[in-house]
Write a structure and sequence with these properties.
- The two termini are 35 Å apart.
- The longest helix is centred in the last third of the chain and has 24 residues, at 308-331.
- The protein has 2 domains: 3-118, 2-Layer Sandwich (Phosphorylase Kinase, domain 1); 125-361, Transferase(Phosphotransferase), domain 1, CATH 1.10.510.10.
- α5 (141-161) packs antiparallel against α10 and α7 (225-241) runs antiparallel to α9 (284-297).
- The chain is 39% helix and 15% strand.
- It is α+β, with helices and mostly antiparallel strands.
- The structure holds adenosine-5'-triphosphate.
- Residues 49-54, 57, 70, 72, 101, 117-120, 123-124, 174-175, 177, 187-188 line the site of adenosine-5'-triphosphate.
Length: 363
Amino acid sequence: MNWRRLWCCCICKEKDLIRENKSKDCPWELYSLKEILHATNNFHNDKKIGEGGFGSVYWGRTTNVVLQIAVKRLKALTAKAEMEFAVEVEILGRVRHKNLLGLRGFYVSRDERLIVYDYMPNHSLVTHLHGQLAADCLLDWPRRMSIAIGSAEGLAYLHHEANPHIIHRDIKASNVLLDANFQAKVADFGFAKLIPDGVTHMTTRVKGTLGYLAPEYATWGKVSESCDVYSFGILLLEIISAKKPLEKLPGGMKRDIVQWVTPYVRKGAFDRIADPRLKGKFDRAQLKLAVMLALRCTDSNPENRPTMSEVVEWLKGGVEKRRKEVTDIQRMPQEDGDNGTDTHFEGSKMPQSDLKRERVATN
Ligand SMILES: Nc1ncnc2c1ncn2[C@@H]1O[C@H](COP(=O)(O)OP(=O)(O)OP(=O)(O)O)[C@@H](O)[C@H]1O
């Protein structure tokens, strides 16, 4: 997709009214300001969903085709904000995947930059883990696993299937949105980086969010797909435990979620890691598997981290294996004692060979 051409195209069409682009290689619409203003009631405060570093986000409903949309409105036309806007539209224009937030269109004029997305009625993961919806306990264990798998699939697509490959660089709970069915949609591509073919590592200025940053990236600016893997590992621990990635301890010290989880793993006290709001209703084998995987993802050596497609296989394998075992157990007469499905890990890291063995076994 040629961003420069699209950009010019938008500016040229600035004065036009509704202009739907129905061509095959351009699946989004060039919205008119009039339509966006109508959909959001002139960016009325009542329609405001929230505010981020980039600007405000408004809910809207289009009338041309009845559709709920979310409109991001750039708050200041600084060079930095312009760059984020351009990267977001460029990247979202290139990708289509069930676990990436869909771009509906955008609008550019001399003093306005707007991005139109699909509206996500179940808000962001952070709202459910730590925010206004946390008390409603809408995320049971299967939903949490499905959100983890969906986010991992979205990332695996960016790393392995998009051309050129894309590193997100800001994976975190507020950037995972949830649709009407609680399907995860990875959002916010303003910091993303396109990786030219053959390039494995780059050094860049550090962008992202404290608590989710891989150490080699935070310290040296070394960026590769494995930085997203690290952030995903933190996110996975957050999904399981509803703990924040960084916690302030009395006395002003900070503890990260990996430091918090490690003693429990050493003691084999996996149940203590689960979010208390789950009230013990979770699959113990899946929980262990997910925690051990998260620790592999957050290994301080990027070379020891799995790839995102390995993460997907591992998570899906665990869920599928468990589902099959439950079905088998339901079919078979019950025996006393351990049903043999409990995965036992010792130490804080899952051995590489275990991960590989499991992968082969689930193929
Ligand atoms: N497509 C969408 N559907 C529903 N809510 C959305 C959508 N896009 C963004 N939001 C919500 O709008 C608010 C602002 O989002 P935004 O992405 O601008 O910032 P953020 O991710 O919260 O913070 P930051 O910009 O620092 O990353 C958030 O509460 C987010 O959940």
